[in-house]
Amino acid sequence: MKRFVARLDPRAHTFESTPRAARAGGDDVLWRGYLTNRTSIEAEARRRGERLDSGSTEAELFAAAARYWKHELVRYVEGQYAVAIRAGDTLVLAHDELGIFPLFYAEIAGGIVFGSHLEDLVAETGIGTLDERFIADFLLEQRHFGSHTPYTHIRQLRAGEAASYQTGKLATHRVWTLAHIKPLAVNDPRDYEGGLRAAIATAVQSAIPPGGVTWCELSGGLDSSTVFAEAARCEDRHVAAFSMLYPGSEAADEQRWIRPVLERYPAPWHTMDASASKPFTVLPERFCPQPRIGLVTEGWRRDYDAMLEAHGVDVVVTGQGGDALFIGDSPRPFVLADLARRGDARGVWKGLRAWSAASRQKRSPIYFFREYVIRALERHARGRFINYEPEDFSWINRGFVASSGALERTTRSYVPRVASVADSVFFELILRCAEVTCNHNAERDGGAEFRHPLLDRALVAFVVSVPWSEKLHPECDRLLQRRAYETILPRDTVLRRSKARPDGMFYSGLLSSPKTYRLLADDPQIVARGYVDGDAWRKAVHLASLGKSDGIRWFLATAALEIWLSRLAAYAPSPIALEPA
């Protein structure tokens, strides 16, 4: 199943859901997503004297895992999924360790409502009071790292978290295993490259079902090219490529990077002209359960979904998460802080000189020592984000941000404690990417399922186990990835150091959409509610229409918040018809 919502009332001994829950060994199971370690669950069943064979359903596997490990099943069930298992009046809510698929819940009179999509919980419980902590975090970070949603009465499971509900009481549990990965030592450094290829191949193959129609996004970047190459090399899987093109933008058009990959790995190729529905030109007509930047690109979503439906696509495989996994996007030498903690003064000095010499900013060793040793150690000790610095932008209402506690909250690390400073930064990056995919999956309405093999837990664990000397270098980002795929991908793709962004389309789209301009500038709710300064925001809207912004990400987030509020005001929740178990 691709979407579910349910209500459990232990006092009335009722359980209702849509769709009807699958039955497995007397338990009710609702789930979304896929498993990757079926055989290990079957082996555990045999060890316990039970029988689960290769024909067991996902519901039977999840029910067995809940019997064996209860909410701890997250430690043993791998894949990307959200699942709810109900045995009598006891309920277990869980999702994969990185939280790729979201799971929402709300305690109500007499019981609990839960589901895979926030929209369904709002329909069941109403809008209630808006949670301005979530809104402040969204303005600053374009997302909220925590359990809050835009509605004070609805929560969601965080990464590395599960929940149990018994005798009318809800308890959440931290379940995080990635902090305990043992270092990998090999005799030949080339074994790291082979190990990475094997882990990626397994993750990609696990994400592609043996039947149905699967598309693989191919954007021209190294990450999507890596995933597509492995998908094309799966002998028993068949995929087509999908690319969003920007033919009207010379800076953003990626065809010259995409075509060499397809020449090496021929496959059906589907394309979408992104210039046909520019950002801001199409606004969502449907209810939007939470603000997200994608609200300004509703036209792209509409056209993409129409293509997926027309071709009967069941699964879309993406390259999301690669920037974090492979230490891309301007890597920084936080590993020097770990050398300092171990008292390796010689190693620290050697590293400082190497990074200073390779720095594009021409920074001195003193700068690197201050930023990546002293400040990194101080932040790590205080439980703060190490690789994050709040940024200011002109239109935000600083009083609102201060009263919401957003600056304090968005700098406090949500990463479970690990001894290594560099590993802490790695997990920060991974969980931020996972949060992006989680928000994306929260909006998918049950059509094609999006899967993200580069955020596969086993793959992430492998990369964690590789020594930093094999994956970080001052003169080359994505060191291990580039070495591993130098003979598998076109040379120019492997050596590529940057990727174009279609920022110009956002500006031109706003300029060509007077309706959206008026929505954002004439009488915006974000000003009336005190979230932003009116004069500064109207100036920002005007400048954006002319192709200028002092922070495009923050501008898009603020615009998306206004679009969301405008749709929220017109929404009248209609409860879903739940069926008894």
Short précis:
Helices cover 42% and strands 15% of the residues.
Number of helices: 23
Count of structural domains: 4
Calculate the terminal CA-CA distance, rounded to whole Å. Answer: 16 Å
SS strand fraction: 5-15%
Per CATH, the class of the largest domain reads Alpha Beta
By CATH, the superfamily of the largest domain comes out as HUPs
CATH topology of the largest domain: Rossmann fold
Helix-and-strand structural type: alpha+beta
Explained architecture:
The protein is of the alpha+beta class. It folds into four domains: 5-176, 4-Layer Sandwich (Glutamine Phosphoribosylpyrophosphate, subunit 1, domain 1); 190-325 and 429-495, HUPs (Rossmann fold, 3-Layer(aba) Sandwich), CATH 3.40.50.620; 335-414, no CATH class; 503-569, no CATH class. 42% of the residues lie in helices and 15% in strands. Strand 1 and strand 2 form a beta hairpin. Helix 4 (132-141) runs antiparallel to helix 23, helix 10 packs antiparallel against helix 11 and helix 11 (345-358) packs across helix 12. The protein is globular.
Index terms:
single chain; 581 residues; alpha+beta; Glutamine Phosphoribosylpyrophosphate, subunit 1, domain 1; Rossmann fold; 4 domains; 6-stranded antiparallel beta sheet; 23 helices; globular
